[in-house]
UniProtKB/TrEMBL annotation:
Lineage per the UniProt record: Bacteria, Bacillati, Actinomycetota, Actinomycetes, Micromonosporales
SUPFAM superfamilies with a match to the protein in the record: ATPase domain of HSP90 chaperone/DNA topoisomerase II/histidine kinase (SSF55874), Homodimeric domain of signal transducing histidine kinase (SSF47384), PYP-like sensor domain (PAS domain) (SSF55785)
SMART domains xref list: HATPase_c, HisKA
Claim: Glycoprotein is one of the keywords in the record: no
Record's keyword terms, sorted: ATP-binding, Kinase, Nucleotide-binding, Phosphoprotein, Transferase, Two-component regulatory system
Record organism: Micromonospora reichwaldensis
Ranges for domain PAS: 173-211
First-listed, main subcellular location of the protein, grouped into a coarse class: membrane
EC number: 2.7.13.3
Name of the protein described by the UniProt record: histidine kinase
Location in or out of the cell: Cell membrane
Known catalytic reactions: ATP + protein L-histidine = ADP + protein N-phospho-L-histidine
Length: 485
């Protein structure tokens, strides 16, 4: 650990971050670069950032000795989470004194000291910055704490305004309304702004009063759906207030979840129709050929037609299974997790892969690989989806490598391809249901966008986690980590 913070490295690195942002850079690439700046300037072994949502957190970026943790979920009820989301915004803790699972894994890797700073906007915690050190005689000093707090504030501002302060409107009824309510004058300036309006828009009463509405005003009696700059959707209605004045009352509510459900439904229909059309068309074409030209076909032609029908039917069955699994809460069932030989399970699952994938596989599995704790039967689905993904985004015939290793608390395997790779800003989005890196007529790769979504669900139901990263030299590495048996 350095005696002093390398302020010149901090300033130079932060200048680069600002230039990235000014050039249009966003998301994980900028965040990861800022974490590298923090690690260098603070002399840390590793840095990580946990992004929080109402349902919990996830390590979305990490550097140095903490890179392995990318993708690791952080449950909202984890004792460490509860501890770090309260109290001082910047603090130093020992990971071996915390009870959370991630903290225990950090401690096992020798990362015993941690300076953590919450990234907050208006009292809302959007994430936490973690600066990690091995044990030593000199703990991080006040200067390093201040730098960590400053960098966490910088990260918070990258997220932009998320919510406003709750304030009281005029009267208990207006204040108690669940919907946002505003009263505007003839010029469209706000005269009344209730607490729900502040919560929905992120604008306090002081920020809203005597200013134009932050969204379009629909004609009286009409309903307008409007998308805010942060991506959320509002449904807005307006009407004239009775009396001699020219005031108009406006009500609005957040319908983002409804819009997302509608979008998912439309996307589900579009994806299923697109993906089902090809195998159904091929099956029908070959079946019609057999029916109409049986006598004129040779035995070889008949067998070929039957083989193609069988292949396409298998593709169709697998697609239907994936669609049904994504729509249901399908998991490993009620059976408790049990130790199993991961190496043996990977070899067995590889044998059952489609022939075109099986021929491209290179397995490099250590003989002394520890047992994993989970559900062995689900591993075949996980490996099939990861290998299918690797094969789809790489040249035909290129190798797909499966490797494995272990540490003190987890056992993992990696699927490595030499394909087109994955952009850093897509490593998390790739796990969203129905997400495709390309859309419309520009799509070069078939698929429903469900494979990685199912993999993450299956793995996390077994207290593991999965992540993607670009492969050195080109391609992608998908890594699955499971608890040791």
């Amino acid at each position: 650990m350095p005696e002093r913070t390398d302020l010149s490295a901090l300033i130079a690195g932060h200048t680069t971050v600002i230039e990235m942002i000014n050039s249009g850079g966003t998301g994980l690439p900028v965040l990861t670069h800022l974490l590298r700046v923090a690690r260098s300037a603070l002399g840390a072994a590793g840095t990580a950032f946990v992004e929080f949502a109402p349902t919990g957190g996830r390590v979305i970026a990490a550097t140095g000795a903490a890179e392995w943790a990318v993708g690791h979920p952080v449950p909202a009820d984890d004792p460490t989470t509860v501890c770090l989301l309260s109290g001082a915004r910047v603090r130093q803790v020992r990971t071996d004194e915390l009870t959370g699972r991630l903290s225990a894994e950090l401690a096992e890797r020798g990362l015993l000291r941690m300076v953590v700073s919450r990234a907050e906007i208006g009292g809302l915690t959007v994430g936490s910055l973690h600066v990690l050190y091995p044990d030593g005689d000199d703990p991080p000093d006040a200067e390093q704490h201040a730098v960590a707090g400053y960098l966490a504030s910088c990260i918070a501002h990258m997220y932009g305004d998320q919510t406003g302060l709750p304030v009281h409107g005029d009267g208990p009824v207006v204040a108690a309304l669940a919907d946002g309510l505003a009263v505007v004058d003839l010029d469209g300036h706000v005269r009344l702004w209730n607490p729900a309006a502040a919560r929905v828009t992120g604008r306090s009463t002081d920020q809203a009063l005597n200013r134009p509405l932050p969204f379009p005003l629909p004609p009286s009696g009409r309903v307008l759906d409007h998308r805010l700059p942060d991506g959320r959707w509002l449904t807005i209605t307006s009407g004239e207030l009775p009396g001699p004045g020219t005031l108009r009352v406006v009500t609005f509510r957040d319908i983002t979840d409804q819009q997302r459900r509608d979008h998912d439904r439309d996307l589900f229909v579009a994806v299923t129709s697109h993906e089902l059309r090809t195998p159904v068309t091929v099956i029908k074409g070959y079946a019609d050929t057999l029916t109409d030209h049986w006598e004129s076909l040779t035995e070889t032609d008949r067998r070929q037609a039957a083989r193609v029908i069988g292949q396409r039917a298998n593709e169709l069955a697998r697609l239907v299974d994936r669609l049904l699994s994504s729509a249901a809460e399908a998991g490993p069932g009620d059976q408790p997790p049990a130790p199993y030989d991961l190496g043996d399970a990977l070899r067995a699952a590889a044998v059952d892969l489609p022939a075109e994938l099986r021929q491209r596989l290179v397995l490099r599995l250590p003989e002394d690989l520890p047992k994993a704790l989970g559900h062995r039967l689900s591993l075949a689905t996980v490996l099939t989806e990861l290998c299918t993904n690797a094969g789809k985004y790489s040249e035909p015939g290129s190798l797909i490598e499966i490797t494995a290793d272990a540490d003190g608390s987890t056992v993992s395997f990696q699927v490595r391809d030499r394909g087109i790779g994955i952009r850093p800003e897509h490593v998390e989005r790739a796990f969203d249901r129905f997400w495709q890196g390309e859309s419309g007529d520009r799509r070069r790769f078939a698929g429903a966008g469900l494979g990685l979504y199912l993999v993450r669900r299956i793995v996390e139901q077994q207290n593991g986690w999965v992540s993607l990263r670009p492969r050195a030299g080109g391609g992608t590495v998908a890594e699955v980590r499971l608890p040791r048996g």
